[in-house]
Specification:
The protein has 295 residues and is mainly α. Helix content is 80%, strand content 0%. It contains 15 helices and no strands. It starts with a helix and ends with a helix.
Length: 295
């Protein structure tokens, strides 16, 4: 079914769900008044039975649906979604983790994203990231605070040789710091990721897909003592169920109820419409069967 047809159907259901029960009720009242006034209408008993069945079917479904979402003192057992908030949240979280978003699905989606990534695309992306941060890094290097920190480090680390060079004015600490900063600025300004660099990296550690999904990764074995893949280790730390529970627990019971109702509103209206039509159908069938059965 196309999106346009689906949208039109939903609009039709919204219209029917809003006015159908009221329309059936008005027609039922009009027929009863006509019947009571002695106005002869064709098939009056059948029409009354059909309209009454449709009204009862529709209004019963409507009340049942309202009982799910609203708590009213005159409707015992109403307000189920307000009373069972915790159980509903736990159920939603379990459904999301089991059927919608889980580690296996995330890992598969990550594989799909990486599969078409060629070396030229990786080069382009990495260089875009470098360009994005290059000016910030250069600004940090040019800052007076950075130069002072480098100068202090030289004073601390160079020992006797540094003091000798500084005292004899062969190379003062500030001048050495300025030279280091200038060289770093030049290297950072000129730095680009090349295909040759990527090819060497891939030759050494494999492709990005290998690095993420291949078990017994050298880095993980060395630093984390784990033979799992990088992706598996990362996704293990993502507790989807807990994330859903924690997020939904921030909402008031009324907000959780409204979220659920908004997402299934069209389906609820379908139930009301079907209640009317099925009520009419069964009433008509029962009435016809009573007329056809002998005495």
């Amino acid at each position: 079914m196309s999106a346009g047809m689906n949208s039109s159907l939903n609009k039709g259901i919204h219209f029917l769900g809003r006015y159908l029960i009221l329309t059936v009720f008005i027609l039922l009242c009009a027929t009863l008044f006509a019947f009571a006034a002695g106005v002869a209408l064709p098939f009056s008993p059948l029409v009354v039975q059909v309209l009454a069945g449709g009204f009862i079917g529709g209004i019963t479904n409507k009340i049942a649906i309202r009982m799910l979402f609203e708590k009213n003192w005159y409707l015992p057992g109403s307000g189920v979604l307000l009373k069972q908030q915790r159980e509903i949240i736990e159920s939603l979280a379990t459904t999301v983790e089991d059927h919608l978003i889980n580690r296996e699905m995330l890992q598969e989606e990550l594989r799909k994203l990486l599969a078409p990534m060629k070396i030229g695309k990786v080069e382009q992306i990495l260089n875009q990231v470098i360009e994005e941060f290059r000016d910030d890094v250069l600004a940090y290097l040019k800052a007076e605070k950075t130069r002072s920190e480098i100068t202090l480090t030289l004073r601390t680390r160079l020992g006797f040789l540094g003091k000798f060079l500084n005292v004899t004015r062969i190379k003062e600490y500030e001048e050495m710091a300025a030279t280091i900063v200038a060289e770093m600025e030049k290297r950072i300004s000129d730095f680009r990721v090349s295909r040759q660099m990527l090819a060497k990296t891939i030759q050494r550690i494999g492709t990005l897909e290998d690095f993420l999904f291949k078990p017994k990764n050298e880095l993980l074995l060395k630093h984390y003592n784990s033979d799992k893949s990088v992706a598996e280790l990362l996704l293990q730390k993502i507790n989807i169920r807990k994330m859903v529970v924690d997020k939904l627990s921030e909402y008031e019971p009324e907000q959780v109820r409204d979220i659920i109702e908004d997402n299934i509103r069209t389906h609820l209206l379908w139930l009301e419409v079907f209640g009317v039509f099925l009520g009419m159908l069964f009433s008509a069938a029962v009435t016809l069967m009573q007329d056809l059965l002998p005495g």
